[in-house]
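On clarity, I found the account of how folds are encoded harder to follow than it need be. Since the whole study asks how a given chain folds, the encoding of that fold should be made plain. The format is easy to grasp once an entry is in front of the reader. For illustration, here is how one protein appears when written out as sequence plus structure tokens.
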Amino acid sequence: MKIAIQVPIKGKSSERIPNKNFARLRNKPLCHWLLKELSEIKDDTIEVFVDSEDREVYEKVEKNFPNLDFHQRPRWFAEDHANGNHLIHQFALAHPQFDAYAQIFVTAVGLRRRVIEGAIQCFKDNIDTNDSLFLVTEETGWIWKGGAPVNYDSTRPNGLPRSQDACYFKETTGLYISQRDAVLQTGCRIGKNPYLYPVDRKTGLDIDTVEDLNIAEILLKDEEN
């Protein structure tokens, strides 16, 4: 099975953190942490692509990671209206020779090679029953959406479980894997029968705000020590 790993890196700056993908984190560009893990994967069936609308992005990372390939996306896919589904679909259409596609984001700075390889192997092992896989963290608590509870019944005295028993899974948004046919038929990164792959919260951390960046600074410092 040939798998392409797509690593989207915008040249366009983020609204919350200016130039987020290259923001300094432990004296290295933020994108360095995930790219380092991917560059150390030794598997001839896996090919890693930096996906950007701006070739200068690739030229910046190529100096440290020359074994990564480059996919130049059309500029439309770098705008705010483009989401993860749009990104993986345009990538799959451009590279139809692969059997499956993984989408991994550099903002997942706690994601390590062993977890990536473990998720890919799990995807392969369950290929007959699950057309896709994504990372999740298991959370607890009472969730509301649209003015109504999602995971408990607020209208019955016995409808309120203990908070530790009100479990749900949250996407980390760090890693997705999907079979080629699932991506091409649906245009989405999650198929009809996904496998939910649980990870701890450190692994599931996604950098979206300055506060997240500060948390990552502490976690990585602890890891180095």
